[in-house]
Amino acid sequence: MNMNTKEYWDGVYEREITHKYQWRTYPVIFYKISSLLNSKDVVDEYGCGTGILGDILFSRGCDYTGYDISEEAINECNSKGLNAFTFDILNDKININKKTNVIIASEFLEHFTDEELNTVMEKLSYANEAFFVVPDNVLGPEDCDEHYQKWNKSSFEKFLKKYYKDVQIDNGLDTIKTRLETISMPYLLAYCNK
Protein backbone atom coordinates (compact mmCIF):
# COMPACT_ATOMS: atom_id res chain seq x y z
CA MET A 1 0.00 0.00 0.00
CA ASN A 2 1.39 3.41 -1.01
CA MET A 3 1.43 5.66 2.06
CA ASN A 4 2.83 8.63 0.17
CA THR A 5 -0.50 10.22 -0.58
CA LYS A 6 -1.90 13.66 0.07
CA GLU A 7 -4.22 12.19 2.73
CA TYR A 8 -1.38 10.45 4.56
CA TRP A 9 0.87 13.53 4.65
CA ASP A 10 -2.03 15.84 5.53
CA GLY A 11 -2.56 13.62 8.59
CA VAL A 12 1.13 13.75 9.54
CA TYR A 13 1.31 17.54 9.30
CA GLU A 14 -2.09 18.11 10.89
CA ARG A 15 -0.85 16.23 13.98
CA GLU A 16 2.40 18.21 14.04
CA ILE A 17 0.67 21.57 13.60
CA THR A 18 -2.15 20.82 16.07
CA HIS A 19 0.33 19.74 18.75
CA LYS A 20 2.70 22.58 17.82
CA TYR A 21 5.47 20.05 17.61
CA GLN A 22 7.56 19.67 14.49
CA TRP A 23 10.35 17.15 14.81
CA ARG A 24 11.74 17.40 11.28
CA THR A 25 14.04 20.29 12.21
CA TYR A 26 17.40 18.81 11.04
CA PRO A 27 19.60 21.51 12.60
CA VAL A 28 22.89 20.19 11.17
CA ILE A 29 21.62 19.50 7.64
CA PHE A 30 19.67 22.74 7.33
CA TYR A 31 22.62 24.77 8.67
CA LYS A 32 24.97 23.18 6.14
CA ILE A 33 22.62 23.84 3.24
CA SER A 34 21.85 27.43 4.28
CA SER A 35 25.55 28.21 4.81
CA LEU A 36 26.26 27.28 1.18
CA LEU A 37 23.58 29.59 -0.23
CA ASN A 38 23.58 33.36 -0.54
CA SER A 39 20.89 36.00 -0.62
CA LYS A 40 20.87 36.14 -4.43
CA ASP A 41 19.89 32.48 -4.79
CA VAL A 42 16.45 31.61 -6.15
CA VAL A 43 15.52 28.36 -4.40
CA ASP A 44 12.76 25.81 -5.03
CA GLU A 45 12.33 23.25 -2.23
CA TYR A 46 10.37 20.04 -2.87
CA GLY A 47 8.89 18.23 0.11
CA CYS A 48 9.15 21.50 2.05
CA GLY A 49 6.82 20.36 4.83
CA THR A 50 5.88 23.22 7.13
CA GLY A 51 8.74 25.39 5.90
CA ILE A 52 11.41 24.94 8.56
CA LEU A 53 14.24 25.26 6.02
CA GLY A 54 12.19 27.84 4.11
CA ASP A 55 12.13 30.09 7.20
CA ILE A 56 15.92 29.93 7.42
CA LEU A 57 16.48 30.63 3.73
CA PHE A 58 13.87 33.40 3.60
CA SER A 59 15.45 35.12 6.62
CA ARG A 60 18.82 35.01 4.80
CA GLY A 61 17.23 36.83 1.85
CA CYS A 62 16.87 33.95 -0.61
CA ASP A 63 14.01 34.07 -3.09
CA TYR A 64 12.31 30.93 -1.76
CA THR A 65 9.40 28.81 -3.03
CA GLY A 66 8.29 25.62 -1.31
CA TYR A 67 6.28 22.70 -2.70
CA ASP A 68 4.64 19.83 -0.85
CA ILE A 69 1.87 17.30 -1.48
CA SER A 70 0.26 18.20 1.85
CA GLU A 71 -2.22 21.06 1.87
CA GLU A 72 -1.88 21.19 5.68
CA ALA A 73 1.87 21.78 5.38
CA ILE A 74 1.47 24.40 2.66
CA ASN A 75 -1.18 26.28 4.67
CA GLU A 76 1.31 26.41 7.57
CA CYS A 77 4.05 27.72 5.24
CA ASN A 78 1.75 30.39 3.86
CA SER A 79 0.68 31.42 7.39
CA LYS A 80 4.37 32.17 8.08
CA GLY A 81 4.57 34.36 4.99
CA LEU A 82 6.45 31.83 2.87
CA ASN A 83 5.74 31.43 -0.82
CA ALA A 84 4.56 27.79 -1.00
CA PHE A 85 2.24 25.67 -3.11
CA THR A 86 0.53 22.29 -2.96
CA PHE A 87 2.21 20.11 -5.54
CA ASP A 88 2.16 16.41 -6.44
CA ILE A 89 5.47 15.83 -8.20
CA LEU A 90 4.31 12.62 -9.88
CA ASN A 91 1.14 14.06 -11.38
CA ASP A 92 1.47 17.84 -11.60
CA LYS A 93 3.37 19.80 -14.24
CA ILE A 94 6.18 21.98 -12.93
CA ASN A 95 5.88 25.70 -13.63
CA ILE A 96 9.56 26.45 -14.02
CA ASN A 97 10.86 29.78 -12.82
CA LYS A 98 13.75 30.39 -15.21
CA LYS A 99 15.55 32.33 -12.47
CA THR A 100 15.66 29.31 -10.11
CA ASN A 101 19.29 28.30 -9.66
CA VAL A 102 18.98 25.90 -6.70
CA ILE A 103 16.69 22.96 -6.01
CA ILE A 104 16.47 21.35 -2.58
CA ALA A 105 14.80 18.06 -1.68
CA SER A 106 15.53 16.80 1.83
CA GLU A 107 14.03 13.58 3.15
CA PHE A 108 12.14 13.34 -0.14
CA LEU A 109 13.68 10.96 -2.69
CA GLU A 110 13.44 7.86 -0.48
CA HIS A 111 9.63 8.05 -0.75
CA PHE A 112 9.52 6.96 -4.41
CA THR A 113 9.77 3.62 -6.21
CA ASP A 114 12.50 3.09 -8.81
CA GLU A 115 10.06 3.85 -11.62
CA GLU A 116 8.72 6.97 -9.90
CA LEU A 117 12.25 8.25 -9.24
CA ASN A 118 12.88 8.58 -12.99
CA THR A 119 9.87 10.91 -13.27
CA VAL A 120 10.87 12.84 -10.16
CA MET A 121 14.49 13.36 -11.21
CA GLU A 122 13.54 14.40 -14.74
CA LYS A 123 11.27 17.05 -13.26
CA LEU A 124 13.87 18.23 -10.73
CA SER A 125 16.71 18.73 -13.19
CA TYR A 126 15.87 22.29 -14.29
CA ALA A 127 18.34 24.16 -12.04
CA ASN A 128 22.13 24.12 -12.23
CA GLU A 129 22.55 23.27 -8.55
CA ALA A 130 20.72 20.87 -6.26
CA PHE A 131 20.89 19.63 -2.69
CA PHE A 132 19.42 16.22 -1.89
CA VAL A 133 19.27 14.68 1.60
CA VAL A 134 18.40 11.06 2.37
CA PRO A 135 18.93 8.76 5.35
CA ASP A 136 22.36 7.07 5.25
CA ASN A 137 21.83 3.33 4.96
CA VAL A 138 18.94 3.31 7.45
CA LEU A 139 15.14 3.40 7.39
CA GLY A 140 14.75 1.45 4.19
CA PRO A 141 11.50 -0.19 3.04
CA GLU A 142 11.87 -2.96 5.60
CA ASP A 143 11.94 -0.45 8.48
CA CYS A 144 9.74 2.41 7.33
CA ASP A 145 6.46 1.98 5.43
CA GLU A 146 6.73 5.35 3.73
CA HIS A 147 10.22 4.65 2.29
CA TYR A 148 10.94 2.74 -0.94
CA GLN A 149 14.67 3.47 -1.17
CA LYS A 150 17.70 2.83 1.00
CA TRP A 151 21.02 4.34 -0.08
CA ASN A 152 24.58 4.38 1.16
CA LYS A 153 27.15 6.95 0.05
CA SER A 154 28.31 4.92 -2.95
CA SER A 155 24.87 3.92 -4.23
CA PHE A 156 23.48 7.44 -3.76
CA GLU A 157 26.38 8.97 -5.69
CA LYS A 158 25.92 6.44 -8.50
CA PHE A 159 22.20 7.24 -8.66
CA LEU A 160 22.71 11.03 -8.75
CA LYS A 161 25.47 10.87 -11.39
CA LYS A 162 22.80 9.75 -13.88
CA TYR A 163 21.40 13.29 -13.61
CA TYR A 164 24.30 15.57 -12.59
CA LYS A 165 27.89 15.95 -13.77
CA ASP A 166 29.38 16.82 -10.39
CA VAL A 167 28.16 15.12 -7.22
CA GLN A 168 29.72 15.67 -3.80
CA ILE A 169 28.31 13.82 -0.80
CA ASP A 170 28.78 14.63 2.85
CA ASN A 171 27.64 12.21 5.52
CA GLY A 172 27.13 12.64 9.22
CA LEU A 173 24.63 12.59 12.06
CA ASP A 174 21.87 15.05 12.74
CA THR A 175 20.23 15.18 16.14
CA ILE A 176 16.49 15.50 16.36
CA LYS A 177 14.80 16.07 19.71
CA THR A 178 11.36 14.57 20.09
CA ARG A 179 9.17 14.90 23.16
CA LEU A 180 10.39 11.55 24.49
CA GLU A 181 13.92 11.16 23.20
CA THR A 182 16.81 12.47 21.17
CA ILE A 183 17.36 10.66 17.88
CA SER A 184 20.64 10.61 15.97
CA MET A 185 19.83 10.31 12.28
CA PRO A 186 22.63 9.32 9.89
CA TYR A 187 22.26 11.32 6.69
CA LEU A 188 23.72 11.78 3.22
CA LEU A 189 23.78 15.36 1.96
CA ALA A 190 24.51 15.59 -1.76
CA TYR A 191 25.53 18.78 -3.51
CA CYS A 192 24.99 18.38 -7.26
CA ASN A 193 25.99 20.61 -10.13
CA LYS A 194 25.39 20.33 -13.85
Structure description:
The chain has 194 residues and is of the alpha/beta class. The protein has one domain: Rossmann fold. Helices cover 29% and strands 26% of the residues. A 7-stranded mixed β-sheet has the order 3-2-1-4-5-7-6. Helix 4 links the parallel strand 2 and strand 3. The model has no long low-confidence stretch (mean pLDDT 92).
Give a quick rundown of the structure.
By secondary structure, the chain is an alpha/beta fold.
Q: SSE layout and pairings?
A:
Layout: H1 6-18, H2 27-35, E1 42-46, H3 52-59, E2 63-68, H4 71-79, E3 84-86, E4 102-106, H5 114-123, E5 129-135, H6 153-160, E6 166-177, E7 182-193
Parallel strand pairs: 1-2, 1-4, 2-3, 4-5
Antiparallel strand pairs: 5-7, 6-7
Characteristics of this structure?
7-stranded mixed sheet, Rossmann fold, 29% helix, 194 residues, 7 strands, single chain, 6 helices, alpha/beta
Tally the structural domains: 1
- In the sheet with the most strands, the strands line up as 3-2-1-4-5-7-6
Largest sheet geometry:
7 strands, mixed
CATH homologous superfamily identity = Vaccinia Virus protein VP39
Structural class based on helices, strands and sheet pairing: alpha/beta
CATH class: Alpha Beta
